[in-house]
Amino acid sequence: MSLSDTDALDQLLSLATPAEEADRIELEPDVSFWRSTGRAPPAGLAYEATIPEGLHFSAGNAEVTTVIAGRTFAFRGFIAAHFRADVPLMCASRTEPGTRWTSLGLWVDARSELFEVLGDGLGALPEPRPANLQLCALITNRTAASFKGVARSYALRADGYAMLAHIHEDGRLATGTPDKRRKEAIKLARLILDQEYPDPPSLAELARRVGLNRRYLTGDFSAVNGMSIARYITRLRLGHADAMLATGIPVAEAALRVGLTPSHFAQAYRRRFGHPPSERLPFEVPRSIA
After folding, report:
1. Full residue range of the structural domain in which residue 34 is found
2. Residue 248, pLDDT score
3. Domain total of the chain
4. CATH of the domain at 103
5. N or C: which end of the chain has fewer CB within 10 A?
């Protein structure tokens, strides 16, 4: 089945019949949410379709077997699965005979502002896992089914944003335990800052250079180092300037060498060390850089 001339998500919904609910709305530009509920016929329900490029977040209660890129995934009961499709993927799915299903999904196109926010760390194929209590409550919520027209779209939009909030929170909590790749990226970020602290890269540039989005970079950096990136840069600057003052370098020159104006440096130095930089005694034992 070719979907090259058809919107794949609408096609998937039309294939999933007989459905009691089969709704799709646009939550944001290039962000779609859909909800489908129904029962498979006695012979079961089988179909093939193309999964479009983008981020895919799904949750549901079903008895479905899906083959994507040659791998078979079994969805049984309340399940959540998220993945990132960098190219269109063919899928073949079969719902068990006579079984009911409820399926919720979010699709985020690469053009969306949410793509980088939500996409970091997602695998190229689904990894089904049990849905948590919040997602189970959302899956079983039938509020939208009791409305029609505009009221129904409002109720669906509420479900969509609730799912989006869950996905965002799930990713935020994950920043407390960064995986190996992200830990290596944080080490690289710290190395870059250690070397370029007088003129540090912007947050966006640093994120690009280490291969993380800004949300993971800032969250993981704080989790690993115990302070924000901005505070780490300030401590580096003050620590290096303090070491310069200990060798007899004038205050104004030390400030400029670490990328600060003399007035800003004097205020920050006093907050950090408890006295103005002019009172730093030359050849005194240097203090910790960071």
Report:
1. 8-174
2. 86
3. 3
4. 2.60.120.10
5. N
| Spatial distance between the Cα atoms of 101 and 265, rounded to a whole number of angstroms | 63
Give Cβ neighbours of residue 165 (< 8 Å, ≥ 6 apart).
Answer: none
Q: How many CA atoms lie within 13 A of 202 on its CB side?
A: 3
Which portions of the chain are predicted below pLDDT 70? Answer: 1-22, 171-179, 281-290
CB 65 within 8 A of CB 97: no
Could you say which of 189, 207, 226 is where a domain stops?
A: 226
Using an 8 Å Cβ cutoff, are 107 and 55 in contact? yes
User: Same domain for 170 and 220?
Assistant: no
- Sign of the CA dihedral with 116 first, then 121, 126, and 127 last: negative
Angle between helices 203-210 and 214-225 (to 10 degrees): 90
What is the torsion angle, in degrees rounded to the nearest 10, for the CA atoms of residue 238, residue 244, residue 245 and residue 248? -170
